[in-house]
Amino acid sequence: MTEDQKKKLEQKLWNIANELRGKMNADEFRDYCLGFIFYKYLSEKLHTFANGIMAEDGIDFMAIDENSPQGQEMLEAISEESIEELGYFLKPSELFTSLAKRGAHKVEDANADDDVVVDNFILDDLSKVLNSIERSTMGTESEDDFDHLFEDLDLTSTKLGRTEDAKNKLIAKILVHLDNIDFAISDSESDVLGDAYEYLIGQFAAGAGKKAGEFYTPQAVSTILAKLVTNGKTRLKSVYDPTCGSGSLLLRVSKEVEHVGDFYGQEMNRTTFNLARMNMILHGVHYRNFDLKQEDTLEHPQHIDKKFEAVVANPPFSAKWSASKLFESDDRFARYGKLAPGSKADFAFVQHMLYQLEENGTMAVVLPHGVLFRGAAEGHIRRYIIEEGNWLDAVIGLPANIFYGTSIPTCILVLKKCREHPDNILFIDASNHFEKAKNQNYLRPEHIGKIITMYRERKDEAKYSHVASLSEISENDYNLNIPRYVDTFEEAEPVDLATVTAELKKLDSEMAALDEKIRSFCTELGIEAPM
């Protein structure tokens, strides 16, 4: 897919989203648009799979007569194989394109007020189909991955329209517009639909501010994290994100290596958890190869018995947590002797991630700068990580204003249990290396490339990086504030006092002449001069 084709596709998708704009806020119409795209994907994936099964007989899945005994027999056989392989099943009449064509059709008349004509009422049918997808998985291995997946697609909401007909008209129009987009599902090399999904998630995050920013990590930051945890590897047994949001960061890791065995994640927000499961399936991750759970990671970890080769996260910055005394005996926190404060869970996430990291693994986490220098319990934990564990491998300072909804500068901590460079810690200050945009700063490929190159080469560069010995860290009392290690001070140009004095005298002389001119005008006008 060329860049031009991609832009045209993105424009079409955004136009469809705009059908809903004004009727509801950004995160609500996100749920409808992405839900329908997911339904279209499931339909096309199943259609392609079923046609593959019947290729020898030369029968198209859509041509099966659902009411005939022979048709029912064929559907039963296809259903069995589909649930085993794809995890779900749909009848021909339940496919996206069947419903879209039944609901409305597109007209090419340029003078028409509306390019879509609604033919039938399909809301009830659509609701039944979405329920049918979930029902088809009941009692199977894929049940957890499809359970309540469409619950945010509320077809009864008054935000879709005041009357049933108004709701039906809007939904039918969206379905027919989506039906006219070719997502190239049958092309195994193509990830058009996955990329379209990512595009819309990013657009909604940009438009919805902080609320959406909570579940979306900008692609540039995701890329840095993914490259850091895959450095020197072509295959990963597993990758884990304890605050996985919409799953984009997990998927970004898979783009940096040839193969990822299994994906694990946990997300507290139910809607975002549903997005993450859809995102996995849309990107071709088999239902047996991902295990996502919905729960509070710190309070109720769901994968506590597992260790992971790569761990990545963009946790909510300085979130509150219970910091209950019960956690003092929790294996994740006990060895440190202190818990992260209840008002700032940043180090609690770091401790949790370290506990789940394999001995040969790498973790990279985005955090606010405060974790580098705050004292009390956080200072104690930071010292333990460096002095006792010797797990901290690198500290990378990022530019301010690159996250949706917050302008604060952030940093990335890279940690390993078995470090190749156990006698030093790399500091990179990339805070001044970015492209300035109107509302937000962003990182270009060359900025990302420089960070990763410096991490691999691990050397000093004036005003950018420094390899600090552990004794240097100790001398700074385990304060990791980046300016202590990377001096980015720009010396001001020397001031020529004689030149400045001469310029001031010249200005005084010019001002005196102007004052005299104003006085003469005032005398002519017979008014008192202002000076």
Describe this structure in words.
- With 531 residues, the protein is an alpha/beta fold.
- The protein has 17 helices and 13 strands.
- The strands form three sheets. A nine-stranded mixed beta sheet has the order 5-4-3-6-7-9-8-10-13. It has a two-stranded antiparallel ribbon with strand order 1-2. The chain has a two-stranded antiparallel sheet with strand order 11-12.
- Helix 13 (346-356) links the parallel strand 6 (308-313) and strand 7 (357-368).
- The longest helix is centred in the last third of the chain and has 29 residues, at 497-525.
- The N and C termini lie far apart (73 Å).
Strand order of the largest sheet: 5-4-3-6-7-9-8-10-13
Structural class: alpha/beta
CA distance, first residue to last residue:
73 Å
Uncertain residue segments:
208-215
Main sheet overview: 9 strands, mixed
Residues in β-strands, percent: 5-15%
Q: Taking all residues together, what is the mean pLDDT?
A: 88
Question: What percentage of residues falls in helices of 4 or more residues?
Answer: 40-55%
* H and E string: HHHHEEHHHHHHEHEHEEHEHEEEEEHEHH
Count of discrete alpha- or pi-helical segments spanning 4 or more residues: 17
Give Rg in angstroms: 30 Å
DSSP summary, beta strand count = 13
